[in-house]
Amino acid sequence: MLAAHDIIASKVKIARRLDLVGGKAQNLAQLALGGFRVPEFFVISTRCYTKRFSLQKKKFIRKLTAALRTCCGSDSERSSFAIRSSSPIEDQKGHSFAGLFTSHLNVKNMDDMFKAIEQIWQSVEQKNVKRYANAFSINDSFSIAIIIQRMIRAQVSGVLFTQNPVGNKSDSMLLEVVSGSCEKLVSGQDTPIQIFIDKHSQAFTQGEFQNTDTKELLSFVREKQNIEQLLHLATEIEHFLGCPQDIEWAFDGQNFWVLQSRPITTLSNSNTAILTDQAGIRWSDYFFAERFVRPLSPLGWSFLQPIIRKAALQTPLWYLGYDKTAKDVQLRLFNGFPRTQLENYQKLYGHIPPSLISADKRETLALTHTTWQPLKFLNYAALLSRLLFRELSWFPPYNLWEWRKWQKALHTKTVNALHNVQQKQIFMDYYRLLVRSHVWSEQFLAIHRWSITFADIFSALLRKFLQKIKIDKKVSVEDLTSGLAANSTMQANKSLVKLNLADEVSLSRFQIKFGHRSESLDIISPTWGEDIAAIKQVSRKAKTARERILANIRHNESVRQQSKTKVNQALGACAFPFNIGLRLIFQLLLHLAQQFTLLRENQRDTWHKILHVTRYSALAMAKIFVEEGKLAQINDIFYLHISEIDALYHAKEISAVHSLVQKRKKEYNQLQKQSEFKSVQNQKNKSESTTALRGIGVSKGSYKGRACIAMNYSQAMQARAGEILVVPCADPGWSPIFSVIGGLVMERGGVLSHASIVAREFRLPAITNVQNATKRIASGDLLEMNGEDGFLNIIAHANRRMSETDT
Known about the structure:
By secondary structure, this protein is α+β, with helices and mostly antiparallel strands. Helix content is 49%, strand content 14%. The protein folds into five domains: 7-150, 2-Layer Sandwich (Dna Ligase, domain 1), CATH 3.30.1490; 156-263, ATP-grasp fold, B domain (D-amino Acid Aminotransferase, Chain A, domain 1); 288-390, no CATH class; 457-651, no CATH class; 686-806, Glucose Oxidase, domain 1 (3-Layer(bba) Sandwich), CATH 3.50.30.
């Protein structure tokens, strides 16, 4: 007999395993599981492709033929089947392999079916397949599965692109329709009717059509209900699979059927967050990208690296039962920027249903239904036993309670610790304070790692709830979670606006309350409190937009209350007693989504308070070293590691230390210049042919303005009023400039990233995940952006504007 995994039915669990059934079959199985109408099919797995080369090939073929007869059923001679390829490398987001493998339609007997199977297997060895694989750096030694699917007697069929691939238009869909089956359309033998659908208005317009045999076809497309059903189907599939889709469909006179669906690979948004080294290991900068805009200093990295490795990666992996993976976790600097193995993140998030993870995170970490695998029994056993006996932060109410308790205790500890060391001014006291701040950071991350996950999950659940009660078109999760008075970043900006610059007492109070804030988590970056002149400068800039800031705060509060009222009114229209239960669910989801979204932002502020203590202790030790002649300058301490600071204190011979500091300082400065030089060089060499860019809209609003490219905080603060700030990512510490600029474009981040949350508070149109935006756009380019759908267009290039001005 054949093995259990050789022929796989569409509804069994392993039909969603990419390695066994391939991309195309896995997509279909996932859609069938999600309730979409998919024609019945089964899969000859990738294992059969390997077995055909075995010494017992004849015996294997005989058994396979018998199994196919059983699977096709007694009426197989009267049915027609489609025989299609489904390789694990096929129909993926970055590469589709469309049309490269052989497919066969209308196969009606077993002999023809087996000939088709053989031809698909042989197509793997074709030169054009290998060339395509090599172009995408894919190993050309791969296997292939085969889908055998009953064909639908289609009156009309076609393809629907949920994002128009022509011109990269993210605000429209493209529908192509032909009579009968889709075979001639896909092969290019038939000219379809093209229909363009506007995503916002849902209005559609028909393109030119010259085919004379149009009676049945025109009857179908003129029926508005047909187009609306297809639009609804496509929208649901795109949301379900998490990215723009190329959907092949058929209509049999009564029902719409999904024949296949794959990611659109011609769109310009490629994931550059993943690097592959020479050993084939993939490295991700997730978590780091939105936190570090500049290369890290040696001291900053030696402080953060062990904390992040243990608290953010190793311990959660250990909880899930991945002991070996946890032990092998690495954090490495690539040109000064941190990354870890992509596998670590995929295992951490791979057990959460993709629909509960934000789209930006799924894309950044290459998380799709292909990577989702429920935990095995042993993993569950490890998870339960380890969590129950180690901590309770994984329980949302406890996480909130623990955070409030810990934060209050932290405040007391930091105030007392700073007071004590300032009184004694002893080197080892400063060193012990630095070590204590290291412990506090680790404790912080142990709570924060759960809080940011809950922010994702409860926002997704609230979004699903709004969709279920059909009010998501009127009310968004962002409307319900913005405008919360306790947002620490908005409190800081409100204080900047109201700050009395002539009053020393007012300035001192501001320093005490907000002086810990900084542009980065790297302790080489100065805090606000270290430079009164800088605070005054930022305050003056914020005061120019005083009315806008205060109006935005009032507006967000109003929108949040109105949105909550709309939802309650919708629930009130539901039948009794279901409306009572639904209201309770809504109140719970709303409370948790608000609390954890707010916590995500405010916890960042708390970490800055800890790092303020870390930086203070480092500078205090550096001052002593300078007085003793062990360091030439106070800032030289940032070019040492923590362990080297202790060694330097006891050292008598310091010439080697001076050489080491100078060497690292030179390397660090080169990395800084290299980062800025690449941005300038890319702007000089950029292609003017790219005008339409795509990202993820994270803050509503349309805006047109000139671009200002900024690679760091100091450059961002130079942006002029009304400009669109284009940056790799933005820190909450940059928020004073948000009140001045007209729009924000970021290469990295997501809906719940710190900059996105703050942008919504400022009602600032914002788009994130625009890959290589700082390279494709130049300062002075005229941009048009939509912060809702993520569409960005370069209307005019800066050099053209300059030449027009000169003439």
